[in-house]
Amino acid sequence: MTDAVLLAGDRYHQADEAFAGVVPAFEAVGLDVECITDVTALNGDLLKDKKLLAILRDGMEWPDGDGGKYEVWMQPDQERAIADFVARGGGFLPLHNSCWAYPWQGPYRHTLGGYYQSHGPILKVREEVIADHPITAGVEPFEVVDEQHWLWFDTDRVTLFLKSYAEDGREGPAGWAHDVGEGRVAYLANGHTLEVLQHPMVRRLLENAARWVLKI
Hints:
- By secondary structure, the protein is an alpha/beta fold.
- The chain has one domain (4-113, 173-214): Rossmann fold (3-Layer(aba) Sandwich), CATH 3.40.50.
- 25% of the residues lie in helices and 34% in strands.
- It contains six helices and eleven strands.
- A nine-stranded mixed beta sheet has the order 2-1-3-6-11-10-9-7-8, sandwiched between helices.
- Strand 9 and strand 10 (171-180) form a beta hairpin.
- Helix 1 (15-28) packs across helix 6 (200-214).
- The two termini are 19 Å apart.
- The mean pLDDT is 95.
């Protein structure tokens, strides 16, 4: 029986890179991970016996190909399945673009604690810890070449512990955490490429975040 499930892969992000970058961090904390790319597989039955859910993909599907319009894939029953999973004690790690193009007024957005605005070009970004938190233990300031994401987040509900500072002078939230019911949620913004996911400090954040949401 697997402990965790990782949903990854979209038009802009290779699933294999996400799996190669994230799974070793989860395995390092003792998790057996099921990797999926089919968005329809994410449901209450899948999460029933899991301890951890992680998503590294956006909310878009392209039924008419690259030239068409996208559709939001997450359905109300999937939102509720995730919200219920966390409320009853599950750990949720939304990563990188998992805030982008999802339903923004329902259980998913409430559980996540924030929502995507936009992102800049791929450039050098400096990440700095701005608050003491178990997820930032041992994390020193570091630089990566990544997308800088800009997001709204619920300042009254979440603890922002990491910020990004780009070469062009812009800054953005790069990591937050909060409790939801009996469970925990931690969002980490870095992760556009395998190289970023394998950076030692990103790897440490992933491991720390997995431990924190699982209360181990």
